[in-house]
Design brief:
By secondary structure, the chain is mostly beta strands. The protein has two domains: about 200 residues, Pectate Lyase C-like; about 100 residues, no CATH class. It has four helices and 28 strands. The N and C termini lie far apart (about 90 Å).
Length: about 350
């Protein structure tokens, strides 16, 4: 009897073990299984989208091993799907290691589709993105690198080397976005938040041209870095914030921007009469640019609040603003041309 029970128990455990691993495997996919080639030359758009679409049947994770993957088209991450590289935290993009996506689509057409579109509850994580045809000596416009739509889109531990436009959480209605651990060199627009109808969380975003400097490692950029910084001082809006409700931002930074933080009105917003920013910003700052903060409009009843922030240059509040602007334990000092102005 004991022998029978032992055999039965062993058989049960064996069947459970095999069944568990077969079931677990349904939710995990590898882009190599769908024909991806990490050689930096082969177009991987179809291979990646096929893997993402397969994962969308039940929800799951599409794993991207280390390598350089070229894309002549764009990607959509379906609802409940994660596209995940090998990085376990934010970092730099190097030519010889890591998961790197190489974007070629959209050159000279800002209004074309973003390189990656996130649907509700989808995630982009643990990888780097570069635009190989973007050069410091000859900067061209591109659409947004990443666009979030729906509810609870996640961008975590991602580095973007040289996007013309960075991350768009504002062109389409979205809410509850989770953006964390992002290093980015953006040239025209960094992060755009707007049409956000529920609390989003923005943490540890570093907008700095250094994200572009090491993509040809071990050779680091030399004089080209000044070309980049000169361009962003004339063109970059680091954080553009329109209509949002109870948004939280912490540990975010931008340097060498034309405007560090810009607060705008969402004109024609059908969701409510107070279509401006309501956001709490802590431990953040704008360094070494002509204007740290530009306030065009904020929500009338709540407005915006900065706490424990630093600004190397001034703040400008436009005549049309009627919402409160609260600054607690914040520092301002002269960098380019210090400006503190409120036009009444």
């Amino acid at each position: 009897m004991n022998l029978y029970l032992k055999k039965s128990a062993f058989l049960f455990c064996f069947i459970f073990f095999i069944g568990f691993h077969l079931y677990a495997g349904i939710s995990d996919f590898d882009v190599f299984e769908f024909g991806a080639v990490p050689d930096g030359r082969t177009d991987n758009t179809l291979a990646f989208q096929s893997a993402l679409n397969k994962a969308a049947i039940t929800g799951g994770i599409v794993h991207v091993p280390a390598g350089k993957y070229r894309f002549d088209g764009v990607l959509e991450i379906p609802r409940g799907v994660a596209l995940q590289g090998i990085a376990a935290g934010p970092g730099c993009i190097y030519s010889d290691i890591g998961t790197v996506l190489m974007a070629y689509a959209g050159r000279d057409d800002e209004n074309s589709k973003p390189f990656i579109t996130l649907r509700s509850s989808s995630t982009l994580r643990g990888l780097g993105i570069i635009y190989p045809e973007q050069k410091p000596q000859d900067i061209h416009p591109y659409p947004y690198c990443i666009q979030a739509t729906g509810r609870s889109g996640n961008v975590i531990d991602v580095t973007i080397a040289n996007a013309y436009n960075g991350i768009d959480c504002g062109s389409l209605y979205n809410e509850g976005q989770n953006l964390r651990g992002i290093n980015m060199c953006a040239l025209r627009r960094g992060l755009y938040i707007d049409r956000s109808t529920d609390i989003g969380r923005i943490e540890d975003i570093h907008i700095h041209s250094v994200a572009w400097w090491d993509i040809n490692y071990p050779v680091r950029m030399g004089d080209e870095t000044q070309l980049i910084n000169n361009y962003t001082l004339k063109n970059l809006e680091g954080f553009i914030i329109g209509r949002c409700d109870w948004e939280y931002m912490s540990n975010c930074f931008v340097i060498w921007a034309k405007v560090g933080f810009r607060f705008t009105e969402t004109k024609g917003d059908p969701s409510g009469a107070d279509s401006q920013a309501n956001i709490l910003i802590t431990q953040s700052g704008s360094d070494d640019g002509p204007l740290a903060v530009l306030v065009e409009k904020t929500q009338y009843h709540s407005g915006i609040a900065f706490e424990n922030c630093q600004f190397m240059d001034g703040i400008q509040i436009e005549e049309g603003n009627r919402g409160p602007i609260k600054l607690t334990n914040c520092g301002f000092w002269d960098g380019q041309n210090l400006l503190v102005e409120h036009t009444l």
